[in-house]
Amino acid sequence: SRPRLPCCPRMRYWDAVFAFVVAMLVATVLTPLAARLARRVGAIAMPSERGLAERATPLLGGLAILAGVLVAGAIWLPDEITLHHTLGRVGSGGTVHTWGVVAGACLITIVGAVDDARDLKPAWKLVGQIAAAVIAVEAGAVVTDVSLPFLGVLEFPNTGGVLTVIWLVGLMNVVNFSDGVDGLAAGVCTIDGIAFSIIAFDLNVHGAAILAALTAGAALGFLFHNFHPASVFMGDAGANLLGYLLGVAAVVGSLKTNAVVALVAPLVILAIPFLDTGFVIAKRLRYGRKPWSADANHFHHRMARIGFSQRKTVAYLYGWTVLLAGLAVALRLLPYHRNGHYSAGWVAVLVALAVIALAASAYLVYVLEIVKFKRLRAMELRRADPSTAEHEIDERVKRDLETGEFERVG
Question: Per DSSP, what are the bridge partners of residue 58?
């Protein structure tokens, strides 16, 4: 058993920094080796209509991410993460055994790697995801109550395990669905991991903060090889792993605490992949398609079709992620509420940040995808047939936006 972490909070901050750096270096060094292994076993992603890859690219980058997590975790992650019980709270507190969290990470990476090489059926992938989530829950990463703003505590002592499994499996799939353009999933997970680490430290859940930090570091190390033009993809092995680790970090680092921001922070930090996945699944269900079927209707696909390059698409989505992650951190760190009183100045700052984040979200979702697309599509239709009536253009644009079935414009 490794010795416990030093008691000094400042030392633990440095532990998180070192874990981040080491995980990043290990992932950076080992990613080319993972790509070489992928070529040997035939784990290659070929160009397709729903993907933005322009050439055959090796998968299995997730193995390098896992290696970074394991090396940094072996050095700095404590054997147990202990949370203090809150009087009268049935689900607060408890102990999380990090060996169980690591075991679940290894399992889901193996399942993802097999899928990358052999293309497993969706049912088998789901079984692997559930198994990894159950291992994490059995290790103590389970939520049985949540503090809600203005509403108090919502308790579910008998269904907490099931809800936590649903949360973890959902997040694995959310990250997996968003992994469709060079550097997007790895970059978003890097930003989100850093945000989770900061919030967990402020909540005094240092073990979870270190877990989030080394997850972000491993994702960043892989990103050096994955940014456009990518030389390797993380594959299901990496996407499922990052979703799993971020989900556990959110559970242990905030959801199991008695902080009012506990539920709000993860939802704000992970808003973009959740919105993306939600829109896509809703569209598939509306048109009678299977929710897990592949298509090209994610945010990055639609931005590419209105003329954005891969780098510009990723830059916009990174910026959006930073704004929302910054808002979540501000919700926890800004002293807008102390001793039962609100500070007008800090509340104004927080409201301003929220307005900026919401305005950016509206700009990206509405202006870029709808307004710009409509203008470009109208120009294209008029070039093809100058006699096209305005109402015909409107109907065509409306149908294209609803179905997502249109070629690149611009």
Answer: 44
69 in Cβ contact with 244 (< 8 Å):
no
240: Cα separation from own chain's centroid? 10
Residue 28 has pLDDT above 70, yes or no: yes
In the three-class reduction of DSSP (H, G, I as helix; E, B as strand; rest coil), residue 83 is classed as: strand
Token code pair at residue 103:
């075991």
Question: Which of 20-34, 184-198, 295-309, 368-382 is predicted with the least confidence, judged by mean pLDDT?
Answer: 368-382
Instruction: Kindly report whether the peptide bond that precedes residue 229 is cis, defined as omega within 30 degrees of 0.
Output: yes
* String of DSSP letters for 334-378: S-SEETTEE-HHHHHHHHHHHHHHHHHHHIIIIIIIIIIHHHHHH
| pLDDT tens digit sequence for 367-403 | 665 555 566 566 666 666 666 665 566 566 666 555 5
Give the whole-angstrom CA distance, residue 97 versus residue 207. 10
- How far apart, in whole angstroms, are the C-alpha atoms of residue 218 and residue 26? 8
Output the CA torsion sign for 209, 332, 85, 168. negative
Tokens 């633990």 belong to 12
Q: Taking each helix axis from N to C terminus, what angle separates 235-250 and 61-76, rounded to the nearest 10 degrees?
A: 30
In this prediction, residues 89-98 reach a mean pLDDT of 69
Strands (E), 38-124: 44-45, 57-58, 80-83, 94-97
Residue 6, pLDDT > 80, answer no
- d(C-alpha 61, C-alpha 66), whole Å: 9
CA-nearest of 239, 201, 248 to 219 is 239
Q: Copy the structure tokens of residue 153.
A: 């505590």
Angle at alpha carbon of residue 313, lines to 310 and 314, rounded to 5°: 85
Which range among 163-167, 272-276, 388-392 shows the weakest confidence by mean pLDDT?
388-392
91-96-102-107 Cα dihedral, nearest 10 degrees: -40
- What are the distances in angstroms from CA 276 to CA 38, 273, 297, 299, 303? 29, 5, 9, 6, 12
- The DSSP code for 289 is -
Say what the pTM is.
0.82
Neighbours of 21 (CB within 10 A): 16
C-beta separation of 252 from 136 below 8 A? no
